[in-house]
Write the structure tokens for this entry.
Amino acid sequence: MLHKNATEFLTQFYTETHRINLDKRLSEVYEEIELSGTYKLTLDELNFGACVAWRNSNRCIGRLFWKSLKVADGRSISTFEEVKTAVFKHLEFATGNGKIKPYITIFPPESPEGMAPLRFWNSQLIRYAAYKKNGQIIGDPAQLDFTDVCLSLGWKGKGTAFDVLPVVFQFEDKKPLFFELPAHLVKEVAIQHPEYEGFNDLNLKWNALPVISDMVLEIGGIHFPSAPFNGWYMVTEIGSRNFGDEDRFNQLPKVAAAIGLNISGKDMFWKDRALIELNYAVKTSFDKEGVSIADHHESSHQFMKFIQQEKKLGREVMADWSWIVPPNAGSTMKVFHTSFENKVLSPNFYYNNPVWKKSNTEPLNKCPFHIFSKK
């Protein structure tokens, strides 16, 4: 299978980049596989593979910019300090002065036996903790269990709604390690509304950089279980989902009250109105601070442009419709009225079973979006 995957990827790489001597490279790779059970991608192959994995990501609406992804080669990293340095460098470079840059740091690949040399425990490098106090949850409920894990490892949070969790990782099957992120590397935006002063009393804020850190990057049959990557936020990810969902920060009732809406009657349209103003506050706040963010209408337009660009090159865009269509005003966008084939292409990003969570992965084994590491 590895021979087949390597052949398909290298053929694609040499074809799209107009290179010669494919047969020579394939011979080298086949020999390496026979000797070691795996092979090493060249830096050019790694860069191309990471970019195409983004291009092929079925659930991402922001793929128009796939060629702009910058790749940091961390395949030789093997110590605590090296991991820490690589993460800090990633955050610093990708965040910049607020003009977010798409960036990926690729750590060592799995062994031929399927053992991961390094796994991050965080779903994203920057997440807010959650604490249960007096029957209520302070912070992000989605991180409640993981916060307990961090506390059990010796981390001490401040107990606020926006405590940044530590970065937790482990080498192979060794004891997990963690480090905290310096405040200057975690750019945050205070969420304020330009028209409703009462909204600002909610004291909301969000981080500028969504670095996904628990997915597997697959290139030519080689699995990279630790390859944190980022683009920039789409406004509804923060406003509608992180703040709006009832099982997350659940801010809609508070937003509605802050802007003077009646939430006591049978009419539930206050939710729609509050959601619009919440997203508007997120967008205007990021814009005011000069931090990159896309609105859902803009993202939809860009995705349709991406489809047209790919079509001209003879490539069909695969997409998961339920993920591509934004949670707000979906029917006003062309993506809502477009059907997609949802075939998984390679290279790509896949979900993995969380290292820290004992879960039954059997039902997910048939899911095309999942790859499981042995550790």
